Amino acid sequence: MNTKTTSKPSWKHRLHEIIYEADTPAGKLFDVVLLIAILASIVFVMLESVESIQKKHGDLLNIAEWIITILFSIEYVLRIISIKKPLKYVFSFYGVIDFLSTIPKYVSIFLVGSHNLAALRALRLLRVFRILKLARYIGESNRLLVALRASRAKIAVFLFFVVIICIILGTVMYMIEGSENGFTSIPRSVYWAIVTLTTVGYGDIAPGTPLGQLIASVIMILGYAIIAIPTGIVSAEMSRTKVHTNTQACPSCLKENHQDGADFCYHCGTKLNE
Amino acid sequence: MNTKTTSKPSWKHRLHEIIYEADTPAGKLFDVVLLIAILASIVFVMLESVESIQKKHGDLLNIAEWIITILFSIEYVLRIISIKKPLKYVFSFYGVIDFLSTIPKYVSIFLVGSHNLAALRALRLLRVFRILKLARYIGESNRLLVALRASRAKIAVFLFFVVIICIILGTVMYMIEGSENGFTSIPRSVYWAIVTLTTVGYGDIAPGTPLGQLIASVIMILGYAIIAIPTGIVSAEMSRTKVHTNTQACPSCLKENHQDGADFCYHCGTKLNE
Amino acid sequence: MNTKTTSKPSWKHRLHEIIYEADTPAGKLFDVVLLIAILASIVFVMLESVESIQKKHGDLLNIAEWIITILFSIEYVLRIISIKKPLKYVFSFYGVIDFLSTIPKYVSIFLVGSHNLAALRALRLLRVFRILKLARYIGESNRLLVALRASRAKIAVFLFFVVIICIILGTVMYMIEGSENGFTSIPRSVYWAIVTLTTVGYGDIAPGTPLGQLIASVIMILGYAIIAIPTGIVSAEMSRTKVHTNTQACPSCLKENHQDGADFCYHCGTKLNE
Amino acid sequence: MNTKTTSKPSWKHRLHEIIYEADTPAGKLFDVVLLIAILASIVFVMLESVESIQKKHGDLLNIAEWIITILFSIEYVLRIISIKKPLKYVFSFYGVIDFLSTIPKYVSIFLVGSHNLAALRALRLLRVFRILKLARYIGESNRLLVALRASRAKIAVFLFFVVIICIILGTVMYMIEGSENGFTSIPRSVYWAIVTLTTVGYGDIAPGTPLGQLIASVIMILGYAIIAIPTGIVSAEMSRTKVHTNTQACPSCLKENHQDGADFCYHCGTKLNE
């Protein structure tokens, strides 16, 4: 407030510092308050959906949600004002999430029920990594993402096969079991095949005929065996990402695979180039 | 059409180019149209099995399926005509799939219900890899297959043990629980044991006696522990396949599979080329 | 029969060859017949337990089982006669299994229902590895056993923790949910905790209160996360067993970790010692 | 008793030897008796919760529990007396467990039902490792803990993502399925999402609409694929812990964690001792 008297850029700069950074006490305070507000808003949306609580404290929850929505709106506007390239923020991952977290309550005036979309605010919790300066956690999550991205193609192929298998097995079960055992249509049977192959097994649809149970057994054992595949892919990928972190080659003996942070060749003792 | 006036081999050659290859614009167009037709045909078969949709749009779906079946028939005939060795195609993996994808609708004239087998068309989707020239995905899927083939014996032994364990545990549960808890026969109890060991757990059959629940607990923990085995097998296998990234062949003895960074042939000691 | 006229040891020797070995045509025939008899006997026991089949073909199945039991009895006696150290066979793994596979039908004369124990005959199927000379499969299964034995201690510790966690969580759920939601006693709640932690999830008992569902969610996520532990143990163990297969060290540069079957050092090209 | 006549420190010392150590015959006997008492007390608490047993043998079980509680109380007091720094024991892991194992029966005089907390005694079973001098098992369990601690951050990030995914998917399902299919509130829908993603699949709540089943299928396949992540993390971690088998320390710069087979320090280039 008292910075308003100074030049505008400085005022913007200070606002940017508070909102986007977490090094100053004011910035830290802002981030902690924001996190609490996000958590509270998620809890409010959840509680409102519980009928008994809605009946008792509906008005209170409604007011609380409006307050949080207005606070989020102010924060969103301030974020746009205080940044140099507002469009870049608006279309960034966090910008889109922030917008989607703010809008549902306004939309709910015209469209009943849409305020449940406020649960998207859960994505704002991802900020926790940035806010709490959990550099190590970000590093870990990046390494996870790298390993996942590297095994993306293999996992896509695998899931593609799983879906094709489920379509075929679902159709076979539809023909064997029929409507009387709950396999009323092919899409529903494919749904059952997915429920079974992934070892979820609700039991809302279960085979009743001996032949159907035999095929179900085969699907289950298949699912039990092929769960090994995505696991094997990711395991191998994560083991691999660790080995290839140091790309140096010894200038003398050309040995590679040096340890991270090595200054000298482990084999011949020559000084390694940076 | 206009190529018909030229010599026959050239006409065949052009047809082959369109159908079997995807480098020319015509070939690409053919492949994309084919993929859409396959997807549409699968959706039609699925929708037809849903009673409410069948009642409303049954005739429409029937006509759509006949159109696609006739198109597939023409494609099948063209594939046979345009290839040099028709029999090789007919008995190839894709040839069999193409035949099985086309035939159900014709059979359904004589045999009600058999048109559901058209869901086998889902296997035609595997063409997507070849069509979209997803060489990388094919490479990945090959590496998956190599790893699986290498661990085939171990996985077979593992599944053999799982089946034997399920037969014995199923029988024991049949004797303990009896008909009143749903364990009406040994095959049904074996089915239950498989449902439990694979952690699917439908709940259509569940132990009711304390002793039965104790044994069920043991089976579950067993299943929870031994799921590690196929995973461990595939993980180890996929880690191993990474060792064979060295594509050098010894200039002297032509041995391959040299270690990464090897300078000399492990077999004859000849210096390897870079 | 015609060998009876020769000296007794030779007669015994020939019987031993037929029963215990699979190199001669007679031995092979014996083994194949035995395997078929074992499979048939298991199918018979299973079918007999199905009420509808039992009513129709009960007498037939009873006779078939008696024939197989008598055949197994003869085989068992011949095995004892033809071997040099009968006691060693009787108390060996296969000896005990053979005895337990033969006895249930005799016991069932005095004790109704005990003939179901004949399902133990499934263990006789393990002979298939020895009979079909599936040396490679035996090798694989041995490597599996070695990896499992090596990780025995770790898996035991892990399962011990799982059981303790289930006892405590089961008790907590018993106090929260109570009898009205199916948690009628602590043992039953512990059973539920095991069903949940192992991700089996029958649904015969499911939490009804919000607090119970919250704790159940924690148990599930816990179970989802800790399934990684036995898998990690076995994976690491199986990867390890493969690395240490070549124990050679280069006599010149002392490099180790040579490829299997390497004759020359991959680093300096020196001939490796056998 | 007879040691009371000697000096007090010696009497305390002897008591300490019996209670805290397991090298002398008296110490061993004490530990075995303690283990049996712990196991018996857990069984008693469990049996008491079973209504039919409670009705028949309630008084007996009550007396048995009081005896064990008094024995545990005496043991707890003796442990405090015989140790040099009583407060260190009282606030140690085992000290807290011992206290919590003893107190529930006393509290149950005032607060009905609280004696079930005695199931916490299960944690006392962890003593089995120390008591039976299972050094190897402790070693294994330590390695497990090291691997888990090392992958703590990654697993936390993973579980954080899982929870956020479940909140969002649960909300979406609440809006699609609604109360008529059991999705009565957002918390309940999030509970369902966790049940599904972790492949537990009770079936107490199951999607009824086609769209809901489609989304459920996506969640299941997602859950089936991402179970690979914690497994991959732990596998990679456990494989890694094996890499640090080189126990050399550089004689010059004292750096450790050298590569297996390293001849020179990776940090300062000094020749390493064998």
Automatic annotation (TrEMBL), chains A, B, C, D:
Domain Ion transport: from-to ranges: 28-244
Alphabetically ordered keywords of this record: Ion channel, Ion transport, Membrane, Potassium, Potassium channel, Potassium transport, Transmembrane, Transmembrane helix, Transport, Voltage-gated channel
Source organism of this protein record: Asprobacillus argus
Topology in membrane: Multi-pass membrane protein
InterPro entries (UniProt xref): Ion_trans_dom (IPR005821), VG_K_chnl (IPR028325), Volt_channel_dom_sf (IPR027359)
PANTHER family: POTASSIUM VOLTAGE-GATED CHANNEL PROTEIN SHAB, VOLTAGE-GATED POTASSIUM CHANNEL
Primary site of residence: membrane
TM regions (residue ranges): 29-48, 60-83, 155-176, 214-234
The keyword Ion transport appears for this protein: yes
A Pfam family: Ion_trans
Subcellular localization: Membrane
Protein name: Ion transporter
